[in-house]
Amino acid sequence: xxxxxxxxxxxxxxxxxxxxxxxxxxxxxxxxxxxxxxxxxxxxxxxxxxxxxxxxxxxxxxxxxxxxxxxxxxxxxxxxxxxxxxxxxxxxxxxxxxxxxxxxxxxxxxxxxxxxxxxxxxxxxxxxxxxxxxxxxxxxxxxxxxxxxxxxxxxxxxxxxxxxxxxxxxxxxxxxxxxxxxxxxxxxxxxxxxxxxxxxxxxxxxxxxxxxxxxxxxxxxxxxxxxxxxxxxxxxxxxxxxxxxxxxxxxxxxxxxxxxxxxxxxxxxxxxxxxxxxxxxxxxxxxxxxxxxxxxxxxxxxxxxxxxxxxxxxxxxxxxxxxxxxxxxxxxxxxxxxxxxxxxxxxxxxxxxxxxxxxxxxxxxxxxxxxxxxxxxxxxxxxxxxxxxxxxxxxxxxxxxxxxxxxxxxxxxxxxxxxxxxxxxxxxxxxxxxxxxxxxxxxxxxxxxxxxxxxxxxxxxxxxxxxxxxxxxxxxxxxxxxxxxxxxxxxxxxxxxxxxxxxxxxxxxxxxxxxxxxxxxxxxxxxxxxxxxxxxxxxxxxxxxxxxxxxxxxxxxxxxxxx
Length: 563
Ligand code: XIL
Prior knowledge:
The protein has about 575 residues and is α/β, with parallel strands linked by helices. Helix 9 runs parallel beside helix 11, helix 13 runs parallel beside helix 14 (about 495-510) and helix 14 (about 495-510) runs parallel beside helix 15. The longest helix has 19 residues, at about 340-355.
């Protein structure tokens, strides 16, 4: 749809790509919007076709799955100054067809979703449903309505928003009959409308031939395109820019996600403006997101994220091909007793994903966290791959990745190697076995999560591990550094800046250490943040705070890079 003349005529702004003219007439999103990077969605002459993805998020305790419907992140959303009426034509409905709207898109982690307020309107058979989650209620519905509609495979959905942005009222109708109405609970306080669409039934699908938006009297509605996202270089020297001067070739990186980059221009400026030269795909390439159903590889979202990184001069590290977590339902339901079957699934996944990204992803976490928390007989975690395929899954994974892209650098990634001697000893044993078998492995990722006092990294210890990695003729990368924050009640506590500086300095001093990556940049989207019983607890382990202000750690690292 991107080729439509109206879309091309859109003017450009530095923050968010093309912005449509503020308009009063109807806006036809299907004709003018960019939906090419939406998971599960195909664009064509007959409109948008939405297919069931079955994407879901495995909860941390491994017992259940949370819904993960597709959102338009890289692509079109709306800015509004007040009320609007949206009319969505739904055709050829198989199963449940849902349209989603949000003031800010949800932040998707691999174990939970931070829903920042969303409306989901759906029809299935002869029943319609509207469900509103507010910004503060998180996962819980604050409004919910179910009503009857004429049975049929075609419906017209009308969503009307009236009143002021911070409060407002929603009126939702199907086929122009008996609309339901309820308060919007500040859904559009941001002045933005982000779009989602979901074919929610297994094998279900539907088509959207037309999606019109009309602004209310006195209100303005415009379509905004988030791609291409090129916020440009930021004033002053970023960490990567300093590193490039003092240590050419050394990369500073961060784990990043699509929702934060595309929906937050200030964050995009921080992430893409010179602080980093390497992006790790925080969650986008994990198994449950990339192959949510057997043989259904959904690359569109991750492709956009990787394209944006590369457009802005960032190299890309792929995380992760084989991991015991973030596994889709269908893999967990496979017959565990059949090792050949599981091996086939693992190899197919690796081959397909690595081949798809050959030339775009420079390095991979082929196997993530293979070690047990408390070493068992062979030290290996009894994850689903180890339990079914056996210990050989690691060697087989590396071989498959190497065959798919001989130029990619292949890493095993693990926590605690830098701070816990017995974990490093176990990893060393594993590496020696792999090297002995001629397995094509290039290096080790030291996660360096400093979550509490026990994880504190001592320079000499890290140095010794790095040198032993060099002795094995492997490469090392610091892959997921974050450090719990200083205790505000102890004014002399400056351990956070000290730890960031120590790890960076030690890495720079040891030639084997090729790069240093933070597990995120800002606590606004920090992976040490946590959602517990609907309460969001903001973490404190990253170099920039929730307001995107640099913590002392940033200055400490700048000093290391320039001295
Ligand atoms: C983290 C994700 O970033 C979070 O979004 C998720 O909720 C928990 O997992 N080591 C890893 C990463 O290799 O995959 C983990 O990622 C953090 C620990």
